[in-house]
Each structure stands twice: as C-alpha cells, then as structure tokens.
C-alpha cells in the first residue's frame, strides 16, 4: 500500500471509530451530565495512550518545548469543541444537528484555506464537499424530520458551527506547528488536560452525579475512552504527515454519518433503512471515490 492509500485507510478507520460515538454519548448521558461524562472520558483516554508514547523524561520535555501547541489543541479541540458540541446538540433537533455538524469538512476547508497557503479551495474540492453535505442531509432527513423554530435552537446551531471552526483551527495548527512533538504525546496530553478542565467545569456547574452507576454506563464509557484514544492518535499522526492537506483529510469525515446510520440499523430496533438515507450514503460514497481516484490535480483555486 502506498503512502496515499495508507493515509486513506487510517483516515477511514478513525472516522469509523468516531461514528460509534453518537450512540454511545446518547446512552451515557442517560446516567451522567455532559461535562462530567466528557471529562471522565477524556482523562481516561489520555491515560490509555501514555504507555504507547515515549519515556517519561522525553514526554515531559516534548510538552514543555511545545506547550503552546499542546495548550491550543487542548483548548480548541477538546474544551471548546466538545463543550459547544454537547450542549449545542441538546438544543437542536437530532437531524438538524447532524447536518450542521456534518458540514464540518466545509468549515474546516474554509479555515484551512485562510491559514495554510498550500491548502486552497479548488473547484473539485468544493464540489466534493457540496455533494457530501447533500448526502448528509438526505441521511438525516431519512431518519428524522427537520424542525426549527425557537431562539434556543438557533443558539444551538451557532454553538455547533463554532465547534466546527475550533476543530478546523486545531487541525491546521497540528498540521503546521506540531512537527516536533510525537503525535501520541500530543493526543495523550491534550485529551488528559482537556478532560481535567471539563471535569472541573462539571463540578462548578453540574455538581456530582447521584447514585451508583449501572454496568451499562461503565461499558459505554470504556468503549468511548478506547475510541477517543485510538481515533485522536490516528488523526494527529495523519495531520503531521508530509503532503497531507487538512481539508482533504477531513473529507473522510463524511464516512462518519454513513457508518453511523448503518450501525443504527444494526443496533437500534426502531431504526431501519429508508430510501433517502440510502441515497445519501450512495452520493457520499461516489463523491469520495471520484475525488480520490482522479489523480489529476485541480489547480483552479477559488479563494484568490
């Protein structure tokens, strides 16, 4: 497998892992509060990665030498992104929230074009993103009706959009400024410190969860911790690879709603295939295949 094929393979693996998060988070929040649940999850995720990083002295040295990158990634990717995403998703209907969050590749492509001189918007890239978003809309419409009306729902949309922007800035910073830090050190430290911050916020605004938590909660938490540790480590490693463009890598996030819909059909009794959902999945699949099988560079830059 060549470098490009290897990158695509691992990008798909990371997105497949992330696609399991939505159902897990929804189930976990039946027993826990958003900040507490996410805080505990990321603290454990960071600790899971530690044995796979480097020796302690090198770990500490890398964090000290690259503290600005670690701080920004922790703040933007973990604290801002997940705080706004968790709470924004609670304010909008599920289908609409999925579409807004599913537009992340477009937001990240715009952010990358503004921050990275070698990651410009091209006609082929924009068309792929637009087809991908149309597929996300069809998938969401096939599973739940769109509804919008209250000011709180509009606030939820804004929160999810800002979360997407924070993720985009974080991704570009990792690509440009993290070459001197091991990606596993970066993922372990950002997840752990971000989890600590979210946990402290939970104590201030949510209090402590009441009563003993059932086995289901701990099983869900265990999977989400493993998933976050694996997916973030893979993604940070890919972002550091020479020649990998942030906007192109994030196109594979369109795989997440496709996989998520398939998992829902298999795991949730009331979920079943709809023709709109299947159409959306086909559109996303074709758009990604066409983009990555066409080796001719599209040099038509749209943002000059």
How would you summarize this macromolecular structure in one to three sentences?
The chain has 304 residues and is mostly helical. The protein has helices spanning 3-19, 21-28, 34-49, 56-65, 67-91, 94-102, 104-115, 123-143, 151-177, 183-205, 215-240, 246-250, 255-267, 275-293.
Please tell me about this protein's structure.
The chain has 304 residues and is an all-alpha fold. The chain has one domain (20-293). Helix content is 76%, strand content 0%. The longest helix has 27 residues, at 151-177. The protein is globular.
Beta percentage is under 5%
Major β-sheet profile: none
Kindly state the percentage of residues in helix: over 70%
Order of helices and strands: HHHHHHHHHHHHHH
Calculate the mean pLDDT score and round it: 83
What is the count of distinct domains?
1
Supply the helix-strand structural class.
mainly alpha
């Amino acid at each position: 497998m060549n470098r490009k094929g290897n990158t695509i393979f691992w990008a798909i693996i990371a997105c497949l892992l992330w696609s399991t998060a939505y159902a897990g988070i929804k189930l976990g929040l039946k027993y826990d509060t958003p900040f507490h649940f996410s805080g505990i999850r990321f603290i454990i995720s960071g600790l899971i990665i530690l044995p796979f990083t480097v020796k302690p002295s090198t770990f500490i040295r890398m964090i000290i030498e690259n503290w600005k990158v670690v701080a920004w990634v922790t703040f933007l990717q973990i604290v801002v992104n997940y705080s706004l995403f968790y709470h924004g998703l609670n304010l909008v209907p599920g289908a609409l929230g999925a579409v807004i969050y599913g537009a992340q590749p477009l937001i990240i492509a715009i952010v990358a074009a503004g921050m990275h001189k070698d990651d410009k918007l091209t006609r082929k890239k924009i068309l792929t993103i637009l087809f991908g978003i149309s597929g996300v809309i069809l998938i969401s419409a096939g599973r739940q009706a769109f509804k919008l009306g209250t000011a709180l729902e509009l606030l939820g949309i804004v929160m999810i959009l800002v979360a997407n922007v924070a993720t985009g800035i974080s991704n570009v910073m990792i690509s440009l400024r993290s070459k001197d830090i091991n990606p596993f050190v970066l993922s372990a430290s950002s997840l752990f410190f971000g989890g600590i911050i979210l946990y402290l916020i939970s104590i201030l605004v949510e209090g402590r969860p009441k009563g003993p938590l059932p086995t289901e909660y701990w099983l869900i938490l265990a999977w989400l911790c493993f998933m976050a540790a694996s997916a973030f480590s893979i993604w940070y490693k890919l972002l550091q690879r020479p020649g990998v463009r942030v906007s192109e890598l994030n196109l594979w996030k369109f795989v997440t709603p496709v996989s998520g819909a398939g998992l829902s059909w298999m795991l949730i009794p009331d979920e079943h295939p709809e023709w709109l959902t299947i159409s959306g999945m086909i559109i996303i699949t074709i758009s990604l295949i066409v983009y990555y099988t066409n080796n001719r560079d599209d040099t038509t830059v749209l943002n000059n």
